[in-house]
């Protein structure tokens, strides 16, 4: 048999880089290994510029605008050539951050070819000065995760919320039999039930949008020890704070060798909660499909629902979404639990763990994509909704009972034991419109109350459900 591990181009082991590449591809620009290295390079470049701009190092030259543009261009042009070159360097250094440092030094040496006379080749010792690898890594991860969330995940999540909210508004008046514990219950509207899920998802997306991304650059054990010895006259706390904030991050003043990653745990908990609500959406819609409340449109291209049962149109988008959300949540939970712990001042468990952040977001993104596609292919079967409602007149036992209670309080006679009387009429029984009307007429209700109850049907017994959908616009 052919050794598939030797086939070129390389075959992806995981589905996000194989079968589902198209859905997850936008995250590559932020959460891949190459994107992490580009962000590391950016941090190294900006640290060099920051130190020279603020004249932190006595004797260091001040960079011209052209030299700064050149350095930032090294980051902007980072691509296939640099990825290959980094791999070559790391094969020697056996250290990923050191490889980035050496790559930048090579670009300093190459600067005269672009700029002519420049001091950049003499600035080797400023690259990575005062930095432990985690000073670079924590900032690079914060930048890439922040941008992945803002540029890719949140727009997709907001898109799902918007799709669902639009469906809720469209079907705000579509009366539907509710089911509590899987049994017929007080009717609602399809729009109101979708609005509940849209409202829940929106709250979590808002929490994610408000996430705080922390960073530090304070040396081997978070003490600025080497900084103070080498350049004692500098205000190192202010220098560090200004640098972290210049990247659009929140400065963390108290750390060990690592930034504590608590912000990551907070973010992943919120994303996982969004996932779990989306999972609830997927399973509820799947159930509505099985009840016939939704019909799935046939693909314009045609598709195979079952390999043996040609009549089937399977709700695969929702099943795929459900499974990928479970995978994403498992990874996010593990990331959140692992990253908040580091033995004493440093251990390396976070290093390999954080390499799975992209995988966790990728499965969530894939699930959101599937659910949105699934929702877009649904039509409401209003006749099926009406059929279920008309077959369950027993659900009117609740309003009749409550009307009896209210009438009794208002002074009407003959209203005793309303719950027990409705229980006798309805529990475990199929009630018809005729039998319900006969019961109502036998109660001796005040005329206005009786007329109101006789006019009631399961389809009109939806309370304020349709109006409540309007809260999506709050």
Automatic annotation (TrEMBL):
Q: Which organism is it from?
A: Actinomyces glycerinitolerans
Q: Does the keyword Lyase apply?
A: yes
Q: What is the lineage of its organism?
A: Bacteria, Bacillati, Actinomycetota, Actinomycetes, Actinomycetales
Pfam families associated with the record: ASL_C, Lyase_1
The entry sums up its family as follows: Belongs to the lyase 1 family. Adenylosuccinate lyase subfamily.
Tell me the GO molecular function terms: (S)-2-(5-amino-1-(5-phospho-D-ribosyl)imidazole-4-carboxamido) succinate lyase (fumarate-forming) activity; N6-(1,2-dicarboxyethyl)AMP AMP-lyase (fumarate-forming) activity
Q: Which GO terms describe its biological process?
A: 'de novo' AMP biosynthetic process; 'de novo' IMP biosynthetic process
Q: Which residues form the Fumarate lyase N-terminal domain?
A: 18-321
Q: What is this protein called?
A: Adenylosuccinate lyase
**Protein purpose:** Catalyzes two reactions in de novo purine nucleotide biosynthesis. Catalyzes the breakdown of 5-aminoimidazole- (N-succinylocarboxamide) ribotide (SAICAR or 2-[5-amino-1-(5-phospho-beta-D-ribosyl)imidazole-4-carboxamido]succinate) to 5-aminoimidazole-4-carboxamide ribotide (AICAR or 5-amino-1-(5-phospho-beta-D-ribosyl)imidazole-4-carboxamide) and fumarate, and of adenylosuccinate (ADS or N(6)-(1,2-dicarboxyethyl)-AMP) to adenosine monophosphate (AMP) and fumarate.
Q: Which keywords describe this protein according to UniProt? A: Lyase, Purine biosynthesis
Name the catalysed reactions. Answer: N(6)-(1,2-dicarboxyethyl)-AMP = fumarate + AMP; (2S)-2-[5-amino-1-(5-phospho-beta-D-ribosyl)imidazole-4-carboxamido]succinate = 5-amino-1-(5-phospho-beta-D-ribosyl)imidazole-4-carboxamide + fumarate
Q: In which pathway does it act?
A: Purine metabolism; IMP biosynthesis via de novo pathway; 5-amino-1-(5-phospho-D-ribosyl)imidazole-4-carboxamide from 5-amino-1-(5-phospho-D-ribosyl)imidazole-4-carboxylate: step 2/2; Purine metabolism; AMP biosynthesis via de novo pathway; AMP from IMP: step 2/2
| Adenylosuccinate lyase PurB C-terminal domain segment(s) | 342-462
Query: Is-annotated flag, keyword Lyase?
Result: yes
User: What is the E.C. number?
Assistant: 4.3.2.2
